[in-house]
Design goal:
By secondary structure, this protein is mainly alpha-helical. Helices cover 73% and strands 3% of the residues. Residues 4-24 have low confidence and may be disordered.
Amino acid sequence: MAHEFHISSNDSVPEEMPAESFYSDSLPVHAILQLVIFTIIFMVGFFGNSIVIYGVLQQGSSKTTSSCFIANLALSDLAVLVLSLPVGLLQELASWPFGELACKIFFPFGDVFLTVSIMTLTAIALDRYRAVVTPFKARFTKTQAKICILFIWIFSYLVVGIPTSFILKLVEIENGVKVCFPFWRSNMERIIHKVLTACLATFPLFLIGYCYIRVVLALWKVRIIHDNRNTAKNSITVMRLEQKRKLVKMLIVIVFAFSLCLLPYVTFALVLEFTGMERTSDVNVGLVTCLSLLYANSAINPLILCTMSKDYRVGLRPCGC
């Protein structure tokens, strides 16, 4: 979704657009701002997600299902930074140099990685729901978690990546500038695609919210029961309850940060789409801000993990972090 609104607020034929409106000898202020911010996000996120994955690997056989899903979330964030961010920046600031096949292969990755992140957060929420709200049911095993992760990647590419690749074409506009651009058979098809993409990005948040509300209520109820029984603070049951509480608190913060970074861009993109707003300098600055928030989420998660989880800080000690 992040690539669809880089060029214009509508999908008119690119050949009719003057190249000077997007590319010039001197970069506009919003482009320089975008370049600086994206560079910072890339450096922080690349290092942070790499050490999170390393920390999970250091857990060895003590890895939990939550650890597996968190490692997958870090992997999708790392992929966003290594592939989607540079591709989007190149499309915005320069002519696409790699040909139409590369256009069809690399541009859909942004939507694929976003879908992987959303589905991984949903899987984490369902795992916590099963563990806390229905504790007597069988827990997800690490093997099942790994199968689920594989399914998430395959499903995301089949449902989001492949359909997107069919509508992308490499178009040469004035002065030899080439852009990777979505083409639609009809205006209705374009609107349906973008609305469905926005729904795919936001609707799972309602399921995640429901799961965590039930989890918090269940933990609160158990805590009241133990307080009324005057259970010793150092008992194994209370210690496990406290560990669950801290984990759920951290996961809720991760979901809140994801929503805070995603929703402004989705809202802004839909406003651009349905109001026909022109790409003025103020609109460009707003778009850069929303895009920066979207990509910043890939750098925020490692900071949350290392700030709120003692286990991850311990796991990172062998690398001197």
